[in-house]
Every structure is written in structure tokens, then in C-alpha cells.
Specification:
Length: about 600
Amino acid sequence: MAAPKKGRNASAQSKPGRSLALILIAIVALTGGMFASGHTTPRLGIDLAGGTSITLRAESEPGQESAINKTNMDTAVEIMERRVNGLGVSEAEVQTQGNRNIIVNIPKGTNSSEAREQVGTTAKLYFRPVLATEVSGAAATASPSASASASASESASDEATDGEKATGDESASSSTSPSASTTSQGRAVTDALKADDTPSATASSSASADASSSAEADASPSASASSDASDSALQAAYTKLDCTDEAQRAKAGEGAKDTDSMVACGQNSQGQWQKYILGAAEVDGTDVDKASAVFNTQTAAGWTVTMDFTKGGTKKFADITGKLAQNQSPQNQFAIVLDNEVVSDPYVSQALTGGNAEISGSFTQEEAQSLANMLSYGALPLSFKEDSVTTVTAALGGDQLRAGLIAGAIGLALVVIYLLVYYRGLSIIALLSLLISAVLTYVIMALLGPTIGFALNLPAVCGAIVAIGITADSFIVYFERVRDEIREGRSLRPAVERGWPRARRTILVSDFVSFLAAAVLFIVSVGKVQGFAFTLGLTTVLDVVVVFLFTKPLLTLLARRKFFASGHKWSGLDPKSLGAKPPLRRTRTSRPAGPVDPKEA
């Protein structure tokens, strides 16, 4: 059994190049990905890049304290992210802190007063009639009525559409007739109207009246909205609107009152941006009593969104759906508008009078839940009060970063001096290992910025500085195990292999404790402290990778070199300076030839 074991050890010692090649390939691949992504520097947090940090505290109306819960706070975070990103702040951070606080970090270069106004106000959700809509970038319609006629003609030719639908709950359970359905935003206008939903004579006359003039004596909400949309300024804004432009999307509908017609943007299920002309708001978000995502097992609809209206909302919704049902597409649709952005635009083919409705179609569970949350948020008795606003200048952030880097450089210099004085030649291995660890840390941080939104803040820099000591400690443990073996009288190559198992156990246990502490700190902490915990955990994992795939294989290779193998005094492995014991050899005492003394016998 001894011979095979020796062979395995020899094989392990003869192929350390594989491990070195593996880690070098990983470094090249990660570095190439970093340059390919265009993000060659880590994303800086607000304390280093400068900006504004806003703390908002949730407040509920008297007797409705239960409204402040995790679901509603997460929904508020989602809506605030939409608002801040609508200002063109692509790297803004919005996150909860504790049970009732939300932290909004806005980097420099943003109008902080405008951002404070945006994130601090309650979400505005309205149901508005659709007057005209088209995929943004397509040829603009000559007029809303012309768009309606073209859309109706195109949709009538598409009988196989499977667009999202909305029904009154009471009819959905008893009938699957398409006349009880509506399609939801996420489909192009050509898919909005079912072929068997033939417009009635009332619809035709309504469309003609809308197209001709505003001389109708009986001005329904849809007709009135169409008249408003005919206004040259509104039509010009609709024609010029390009919803693929983020800046134009943010300004669409800006300043419009709930009694005004407006232009707006929304994204359909194919990921295309559509532009809209919308009439005055007919139903307010507060008229929605409850909304939820439900998996419909009675039909093939799959995930659906159900809405329950208040008493006042029931009447408003019945009135608007009854009037919209008489129109042609797209003027039989209503848009659900949240903060001037269309999140859904179902069409109506009959009045929904039961006080509830169901939106169904090609929803995933996540999409249905997101829409339900948005509808619910419009009815929540929840507002936010500004607790504190902290402004960090870029100069202050630069000073903090500079101070952190100086502290890290001093710590690294002390470690290098210690290694050179105490370990001499072995310090080359330690320094190269630190360099590999630093390169991996930098590249991964640069990649994590655009991937998961990781931002390098001052606590994260502190975590990276602490990691220098953790990484150096792993090298020291291994070097001391090898030296212990040399002190026992073994040569270098056997000492490297015999010292590794003992050092490996110690390194793994030490790094596991550090990683566990970092994980617990990350879970229980909030805000910037998580940056420290994340960096500490990341560098701890990289320490294990570097020691196993670089430090140990490199020492195995160098142990074959005469400078180290002979125990040169500058190698750090000189047996004499280490106080090595001479090898123990058993000898047999030989007796001189001759007669044996009788006394000794």
C-alpha cells in the first residue's frame, strides 16, 4: 500500500502547473469580461462619489397601522425606483431600512430638490380612456379617430390573438365568451380587438362623431376626451413623442391634471414602447379597494389580476366601462396610469357593474403580482415623511476615498516589510499571492456594479483593507507548517507536502469563521454596513481560491529550485537558522572479535 501512496503524492507534486493555469485562465476571462462590458472601474457609492441621501419614514392614517407592512414597503420601493430612474438617475439606490424607513441614495449630477419631490409624494394612479395609441417609432396617425379606424381594421384581421383579457368576476366564472373580455397593455394595438367583437352601430356613429367635430350635444367622457385630443398642441406632442427616449418618457404627461387629456408612454409584453393620447381620469386609484394576483384554475387564463372597487369606485367604473364598450378600438380601452406611465391598457366590450373586475392573459406570476401591487398601492392610506437629507460633496467623497486608500497602503506596506524581514525568499510567494487576490477582487467588484448594483462605499473599502490581514494570515499559517517540518529534519519537498494538510485544515476553519461572521453581519445589517460585510465575505472566499490554486502550487514548483531546496540563507527556509534537528538514524554497536570474557558471559 505504501508504493501506490507514494505514486499519488509524486503525481500531485508533478502537476501544480494545472492549478496555476486554471487561476490564470480565470483572471484572463474575468478581465476580458470587464473590458467587454465597458465597466473598467468599480461603481462608487454615494459616500465616495458624492450625492444626496434621503431618509423617508412611512406613516399610516389613524386606525390603519397594519398598512405599513413588508409587501407595501417593497411596492413603495419599486415605485420610487421608477420615479427616480425616470429622472435619468440610472444608478440611484432605493432600499428599505428597518420596518418603516426607506433610504434613497441619489448620486451627484441630479437635481436633488426635484428628486426629493418625486420620491416623497404618494403614488398617483388613474384609470383614463385611451384615445389613440401606437408602437413608438411607427408612423404617427393623422388623428386619433384615424388611428382608431386603422387599429380596428388591423385587429379585425387577426383572429388568432391571445392577448391579455379582463372580465367582470361574476361573468368570468360562468362564461368564456369573448364579449366579456378585454385585452391588456403589453400587446400592440393590432391585437387589442378580437375579430368576433364586431363594433355596433352605436360604436360607428360614435367614432364618426369623434372624427368630425366636437359639436355633439351629448359629450360622453370618451367623446369629450377625443375633442381634447384634437387640440393641435396635444396632437403635436403626441406626434413628436418618442417613448424609446428615456428623457422624453420622463417628461410625457408632466404637469397634466387629472381633468386634462395627456400623452403617456407604456411598455407592452413584447418589450416595445407604445405612446398614447389619454382622456381625463375617470377613476382614481383610491377607488380600488383591493387588488391581488390569482391563478385561475377554472379557465385557461392562468395568472390573473382581480380588482375590487369601493362603493363610489363601483359606480365610476361601471359608467366608464359602459361608455367605452360602445367605441371602436382603441377608444374602447382604458389605461391604468401610475405616475404618468401606462402600466396596463385593457379594452372593454361590455359594462362591468359588479364592483369587481379581472385582468387576464399572458401573465407570469411575477407580472401579475407586480400589477396587483401597483393597483393596491394607489389605494393605500400610506404616505412618507422626510426624516433627514444628507448631502455629500464629491470633494468630501474623494477625500474619504483618498484617506481609505492611504490607510490601505500603509497596512499593505507594513505587511510587506514583515514578510521580507521574517520570511525573506518566501515573501515573493506571499506578495504574488496578494497581487493575484487584489486583481481578482478589483475585477469582480467592477463586474458586480452593473450586474447586481454593487457600489463600493467607504465601509466596503475598510472591508478590503481588513482582508489584507486575513489573506496574509493564510500564507503565514502554511509557511510555518512547512518550517515546522524542516525543523523536524525533513528536506523541503517532503516538508511542503506534509505541511499542507495541516495548514489546509487551519486555513479552512479560519476562513469559514470569517465568512460566517460576514454573512451574519450582511443579513442583520442595513445600508452601508452591508458593503463592509459583502466585501469581507468576497475577499474571504477569494483567499481560499488563491491559497489552493496559486500559493500552494507555486511553493511546490519553487521547492524544486536549488535556491529554495538547498536551504539558502535568504530563502527563508535555511535549516540552520530554523534550528533544524539532524536526521535520527539507528545504529548497531559492533563488538571486537576475540574471546569472550567469562565475567561478561
